[in-house]
Amino acid sequence: MKPILVVYGTTEGHTRKIGEFLTERLRAAGKEVDLIDSATPQAKEVPLVYAGAFILGSVHFDRHQSALVHFVKENLGWLNAIPTAFFSVNLNMTHRDPEARAEAQKCLDGFLEETGLKPYMARLVAGALKYTQYDYFKRALLRYLVRPGGVEASATPDVEYTDWEEVGRFVDEYLEATQSPGR
Ligand SMILES: Cc1cc2nc3c(=O)[nH]c(=O)nc-3n(C[C@H](O)[C@H](O)[C@H](O)COP(=O)(O)O)c2cc1C
């Protein structure tokens, strides 16, 4: 059985946590999994042995991590030849306003357009606010940039908006759809 690759881009660490969650879920389903940070040297020497891949990145100023963009562009040929799932982690998802959600979808679509990735499935995932990790400037920026659920950003502690059950269901959905003898 060939392994599954989970590769992520992260800026404050939350997408790594989602990558670790996916990895555990896949291993619990009997899969062999390699978890790789797209910004490490390991990402430059990925063997072409995978049956499938999960690609995860978070949005900062409407863009995903450039290391992840680079990774996908460099490996596009084989990635588009196997079933891939792309998860775009963001906070626009947490707004009730449909326009904010449309923004989130635009960022996801922009990543696919820029890289040429043709994922088997692509999903928006709500991320986290990590005030304790932000410097003064990031805090100030976020107050204007993201106001999840209309909450005044600067007044809240760290908050995780990720629906872990939903992320788990995405994995199950992927596994069900890609399950076939020999895969
Ligand atoms: C400086 C900064 C800029 C951000 N810009 C956006 C944005 O443009 N759109 C959005 O939906 N979320 C934005 N976010 C929210 C992040 O996508 C969210 O916090 C995510 O969980 C970060 O994941 P990470 O810890 O893996 O980097 C921003 C967060 C920070 C700190």
UniProtKB/TrEMBL annotation:
TM annotation in the entry: none
Keyword terms: Flavoprotein, FMN
Pfam families noted in UniProt: Flavodoxin_5
Domain of life: Bacteria
Any one of the GO BP annotations: heme biosynthetic process
InterPro entries documented for this protein: Flavodoxin/NO_synth, Flavodoxin_dom, Flavoprotein-like_sf, Protoporphyrinogen_IX_DH
Annotated ranges, domain Flavodoxin-like: 4-149
This protein's record includes keyword Transit peptide: no
Matching Gene3D superfamilies: 3.40.50.360
Example GO molecular function: FMN binding
Name of the protein this chain belongs to: Flavodoxin-like domain-containing protein
